[in-house]
Amino acid sequence: MGFRFQKRIRIFKGLTLNLSNSGTSLTVGGRGASINARRDKVTGNAGIPGAGISYRQRLDHASTEPSANKTGGGIGAVVLTLILLAVVGVIFSH
Fold first, then answer.
1. Which single residue of 9, 30, 43, 73 could bond 17 by disulfide (Cβ 3.0 to 4.6 Å)?
2. Strand 15-20 vs strand 53-58: parallel, antiparallel, or unpaired?
């Protein structure tokens, strides 16, 4: 078992700088939906706050599947993108 380090710095409402042993990342969004970006990957998160139900998907096209079997992000990616856009719009409208 090793030591872990994690620190979140809120730049402003809806934008967070994340620091950890593995590196830094930025998170845009808040409760319910967010996008996290670091130098090697981008991840989208959507969930129902307080329910413990969430969905996470890597958005930067990295996959272990062969390219012949790729069919795109599917309906999950579309739903996640719409939810993220709605949440970010609500955050920045206040």
1. 9
2. unpaired
pLDDT in tens, 32-81: 889 898 888 889 988 888 888 888 989 887 555 555 445 555 666 666 67
Q: Give pLDDT, residue 22.
A: 86
Phi, psi at residue 6, to the nearest 5°? Answer: -150, 130
The amino acid that residue 68 corresponds to is: A
Asked if residue 32 lies in contact with residue 46, where contact means CB atoms within 8 angstroms, the answer is: yes
Alpha carbon distance 10, 7 (integer Å): 10
Q: What letter represents residue 32's amino acid?
A: G
Which pair of structure tokens corresponds to residue 72?
């795109």
> 5: which 2 tokens?
């380090």
What are the structure tokens assigned to 37, written together?
Answer: 């970006």
